[in-house]
Design goal:
By secondary structure, the protein is of the alpha+beta class. The protein is 46% helix and 10% strand. The strands form two sheets. Strands 4-5-7-6 form a four-stranded antiparallel beta sheet. Strands 1-3-2 form a three-stranded antiparallel beta sheet. Helix 2 packs across helix 3 and helix 2 packs across helix 4.
């Protein structure tokens, strides 16, 4: 019979310190001993519990073993057994986006949707060095005044308290403070600190130092290569120079697509797996057919639309609202180009089992105006804030200066590409199209789902929010094969 022993679990750091203080002799508490013990499993015949005991008793030897195996021999995955929990506070919304772009970690963030915000915000070091701290403070103070005014006016118009705060936050800049809880392993932390150290923003470099200040004393043998080199520091400049030289003349006169409608999601499907439905269904059929994948693919392609739909229905006949689709659904993927508000992007970035390619926030893309604000006749208040933000951006160095993004609002937009396989998009759709989802991300996801149904008319049959799962009709046989429009 299989045996599973509990080797460890997360314990609050304050409790660990209290327990260590009660110990009759000095005791060193570190996750390095677990990494060292697990590293020995492949070459030591002793039970893993014994290996852990030896590592605990000989911390210095455990650290030396980690350094030799992780860095000397290159078995970096050993460092993944050492796990940290961090409280991250007094950090701007802009910095949180950079932090959470690192996929191999877990984050739980204070939501601006549910928490009424106090006037806490970052004054970037770059702003102070330009002598603009006073102007920036006045700008943010006026933004908070608009936030309070919008909350009051929305509630007076009949919008519930929670919804009023949720929509009023579109008037706040990305300099506003947030906080989060974060869990990651030592290998991921090392890569994260390297990326933060490579940032042109002082706040992010300071965040890197803060992580190291609390983590390196606990696990010095697992955190080493975090100083950025030329590749990290100069890559973007090298790309920019080459692009201007090779591609600039060709696109200089090309029109830029800016959504004019403040409620537009600006979503288009720019790429999708050819024959995605057939690829999924063929992979599901291989075990039963007892053949190879190309043969199964040929068999599925020979089916008419009704036959493929019947096969899909067999796959999903017992599907429940909380069930994940099988991994075969990862064989079909899509890339969407979209223009989204900072408020919506804050929710998009939570879906880390996908590829999210972003470009800087751009005031030229306009702002997203919450419908409740428009219906209450309050759009001018939000637009006034956006105009002030544009003026502050100019004062901070213009759109090309990274620090200028601190002045942009949650209403401002950015362009991005989002690549997901169909299995992951089912998760996004269930969560973000649900009736409890925030309106901005719900509209965005619904537009994506419509495009996904066009690309994969059979295997997208159960897309939609959890609230509509039980009433959703089975997919109808498509009238014709649908392909994404290469021009969007």
């Amino acid at each position: 019979m299989a045996r599973v022993d509990l080797a460890g679990f997360n314990v609050d750091a304050d409790l660990l310190r209290e327990l260590a203080a009660l110990h009759p002799e000095p005791i060193e508490l570190t996750p390095e001993t677990v990494s060292a013990a697990y590293a020995r499993i492949s070459r030591d015949s002793r039970p893993v519990g014994e290996l852990r005991r030896v590592s605990r008793l000989e911390v210095d030897k455990a650290r030396a073993s980690n350094e030799r195996i992780v860095f000397g021999l290159g078995h970096a995955s050993v460092a993944e057994h050492a796990v940290f929990n961090f409280d991250v506070l007094e950090v701007s919304r802009l910095a949180i986006e950079a932090l959470e772009s690192h996929r191999l970690a877990s984050y739980t963030e204070k939501s601006q949707r549910y928490v009424r915000l106090g006037e806490d915000y970052a004054i970037p070091e770059e702003v102070e060095s330009k002598g603009l701290a006073g102007e920036f403070t006045e700008f943010v103070s006026r933004a908070f005044s608009r936030y309070a005014l919008l909350v009051a006016r929305l509630m007076a118009s009949g919008v519930p308290d929670k919804m009023a705060g949720e929509d009023a936050r579109y008037a706040l800049p990305l300099a506003v403070h947030g906080q989060l809880g974060m869990t990651c392993n030592a290998r991921s932390l090392e890569h994260l600190v390297l990326r933060l150290n490579s940032s042109p923003l002082a706040e992010l470099r300071d965040l890197a130092r803060s992580f190291l200040a609390v983590a390196k004393p606990v696990a010095p043998s697992l955190l080493r290569y975090m100083t950025p080199g030329p590749y990290h520091l100069l890559r973007e400049a090298d790309i920019a120079a080459s692009v201007r030289s090779l591609l600039g003349p060709a696109v200089a006169q090309a029109p830029v697509d800016h959504p004019a409608d403040p409620f537009s999601t600006g979503v288009r499907l720019v790429n999708a797996t050819t024959d995605g439905d057939a690829r999924i269904l063929a992979a599901l059929a291989v075990p039963t057919l007892g053949t190879d994948y190309p043969s199964a693919m040929a068999a599925v392609l020979s089916l008419d639309a009704d036959g493929r739909t019947r096969l899909y229905r067999a796959v999903t006949a017992r599907l429940g609202v909380h069930d994940a689709l099988p991994r075969e659904f990862e064989l079909a993927s899509m890339t969407f180009e979209m223009v989204v508000s900072a408020a919506a992007f804050g929710q998009m970035k939570r879906h880390r089992m996908s590829s999210l390619t972003t470009w800087p926030y751009d005031a030229a893309l306009g702002i997203t105006i919450p419908p409740a604000i428009a219906e209450a006749g309050l759009s001018d208040i939000l637009q006034e804030g956006a105009d002030e933000a544009s003026a502050m951006v100019a004062r901070l160095g213009g759109p090309g200066d990274p620090v200028s993004a601190y002045a942009l609002l949650n209403a401002h937009r950015r362009r991005c590409l989002w690549t997901l396989n169909l299995r992951e998009f089912y998760h996004v759709s269930r969560l973000r199209e649900d009736e409890h989802a925030q309106w901005d991300i719900r509209l965005l996801t619904a537009a994506m789902a419509d495009l996904a149904r066009g690309a994969f008319p059979v295997c997208s049959g159960h897309l939609g929010g959890k609230d509509r799962f039980t009433t959703r009709a089975a997919p109808q046989a498509p009238a014709a094969d649908v392909r994404p429009d290469p021009a969007g």
